[in-house]
Structures are given as structure tokens and as C-alpha cells.
Amino acid sequence: MGAPASSFTPAQRAEIVGIMRDALQNDPSILTDAIRSIREKAEEQKQDSTLAAVRAHQTELQTAPDFAIRGNPHGKLTVVEFYDPRCSYCRSMMGEVDSFLSRHPDVRLVEKVVPVLGSNSVLDTRAIFAASAQGKYEVMRKVLMEDTTKPSMERIVELARANGIDPKKLTADMDSPQTIALINTNLDQGRSVGLDGTPTFIFGTAAVAPGALEPDQMDAFLDRARRG
């Protein structure tokens, strides 16, 4: 099959390249604007794809054991937070999340602990889930995320003793099938929506917001979720 009638000749292609080169030399912002437009379009497409995945997996994402539900357990709006206990940005958001829940008493927050930053994250996540068997999930989550000591099993045992947690039971429960299943479930759910960092917040099915957020950003995303 021959070339389409609209194909350019070598001379025409050379002329077009010359015109583009001259335009870029006279106004370099043309290239900058083009790159920005491409990036914005790619980000829009990624957000659309992510939100489609969120809608497809809404039930699983908004389901968690009772100990991992914060705020109003019967709240009209559900916000999902994926966090890693060793993530500095997640740690910096702890106070803001508390304030956010205080500002919005109709919000149900579902926590998804995901150890994505290596072996220390896995160790802390196992301890957090294991503490839930003693009704101490929130206590262990808080003390581990506020602790600045190098992570170790010895440090976890020390913190457990200091906070009324039976270290022997905790150690055993860290290796339990239930603990491993909870971790794998959260990781699978993160993969299902293309999670690529922590913290990541999902506001209903209206917005997915990665990274540490300012209070006004949290409120704006929630307003978007309220509007549907």
C-alpha cells in the first residue's frame, strides 16, 4: 500500500522542523507550555483511572475491623487513609487527622496500615495489628508513630510493657495468621487503586489525595465528596 496522500515530502518536513525551531528560539515558553499541558493531561487521566478503581472497590476499601475505624463509626461520609507507620509524612499528619475528625463529626475514617517502606515498616505494622488482640491497636499505633528510637523487636517489647500491653502475647500475635492476613488485605487493596505512596487519602469516591495535606486541602476534598 502506498503512502497516504497527506504524507509530507522530505523538503516539507525539513521546512516544518525549521519553522518549529525558529518558533522555539523566539518563544521558548511554547515548549514549556506544551510539556505542562501534557503533564496535566496525564495527571487527569491517572486521576480518572484511580477514581474508577476506587468506585470498583468501594466496598472493600471502606471496610475494616472495628479497631481501625476512627471518628464517627456511623458517619455519612467515609474517608480512607493509607499510611505507613515509618513514613515521616504520615507521622506529620497525625495531629491534622485528629483535628480534621474534630472539625467534621459526620466523618468515618477507615485506616489502612500498609508497610511499604521496608522491613522496619513490616515490623511496626505487625506490632500494631497484634496489639488489637488486646484492645490496644490505637495505643500501639500512636506510640510507635511518635517513637524516634531505631525500630527493633526489643524496642517494641519495651513500649508494650510501658503501655499496658502483654509483650509475650503481643510477640505471639505478631506472627499469627490473622495479623498476616490483615497486612496482605491492606496491601492488596492499595494495589487495587494504584497506591504509589503514603499517606494517601480517599474521600468517598470523589477524590484521591496523596501526600501530606494542609487543613484547607482536607476540607476542600471533603466538600467535593459531599457534593458527590
Write the SSE topology.
Elements: H1 10-26, H2 29-56, H3 58-61, E1 69-71, E2 77-83, H4 88-92, H5 94-103, E3 107-113, H6 119-131, H7 137-146, H8 153-162, H9 167-173, H10 177-192, E4 200-203, E5 207-210, H11 215-227
Parallel strand pairs: 2-3
Antiparallel strand pairs: 1-3, 2-4, 4-5
Beta strand count: 5
CATH topology of the largest domain: Glutaredoxin
Low-confidence stretches: 1-5
Radius of gyration: 24 Å
Strand order of the largest sheet: 1-3-2-4-5
Instruction: Please name the CATH architecture of the largest domain.
Output: 3-Layer(aba) Sandwich
How many structural domains does the protein architecture include?
2
Briefly summarize what is shown.
With 228 residues, this protein is an alpha+beta fold.
Describe it for me?
The chain has 228 residues and is an alpha+beta fold. It has two domains: 47 residues; 170 residues, Glutaredoxin (3-Layer(aba) Sandwich). It is 58% helix and 11% strand. The protein contains eleven helices and five strands. It has a five-stranded mixed β-sheet. β4 and β5 form a beta hairpin. α6 packs across α9. The longest helix is centred in the first third of the chain and has 28 residues. The N terminus is likely disordered.
